[in-house]
Write a structure and sequence with these properties.
Strand content: 25-35%
Helix content: 25-40%
Number of helices: 8
Order of helices and strands: HHHHEEEHEHEEHEHEEE
Strand order of the largest sheet: 4-5-6-9-8-7
Shape: elongated
Bound molecules: 2-acetamido-2-deoxy-6-O-phosphono-alpha-D-glucopyranose
Number of strands: 10
Length: 246
Amino acid sequence: MPQLAEKIGPLDTGGGPLYRRLEDALREALRNQVLKPNEALPPERDLAADLSVSRITLRKALDKLVDEGLLTRRQGAGTFVTSRVEKQFAKLTSFSEDMAARGRTARSEWLSRGTGTVTPDEALSLGLSPGAAVYRFNRIRYADDVAMALEYSTIPGFGLASAEDVGTSLYAALELTGCRPVRALQRLRAVLFSADQAKLLGIEAGAPGLYIERRGFLDDGRVIEATQSWYRGDAYDFVAELNLRA
Ligand code: 16G
């Protein structure tokens, strides 16, 4: 197998610190799949020697790519090229389940969590009367240490006993009250992340993303969830099976 230095070619000789040029070359190799999803990088000592850079320079470049979610460090096993998450579009799964299915750990950071009164827009999408109580859960969703999505969920008051019922998984909490959605309507469109959103996810402002609105329904037709999600475009492939006869 050719050495990585051979695969990525000589570093740009233009200005800027060496670690930046190395970072750019590695990013390019990841984009072109010269480095393939799930591929393990050689140990840092070997890689630094192969690339003719110091370990400090190499570490700085790798740290940035790990922060961006392009590379993943697994304790004791080394550094790997992060694979994109394939999300089945036809399955009503939760973020936590999607991550667990890939051997990754779902985690959330709360932006806010609490109760309130339905806004006119929420009343429409949830089919609630003015004045009805709702729970709101606003989160940054992580896979291991990589920020993957921003999620803003509104749940009608009858769905949960308290906002504190929701730990890592909203659907697990709804399952316990017998209110996990059994059907959902989803709308998706391409977006560019605003500066504020990008900051929360630790990515560049203007990076591409997928905006997804999900309305989840109970068996009896009541709406149990209205969620707006902003998923990182570089982390997800949405996959759907299509049949001629539905
Ligand atoms: C997914 C859903 C979101 C749901 C969440 C529950 C999409 C586009 N969105 O992110 O609507 O609220 O899962 O995840 O799939 P949780 O149970 O891990 O909190």
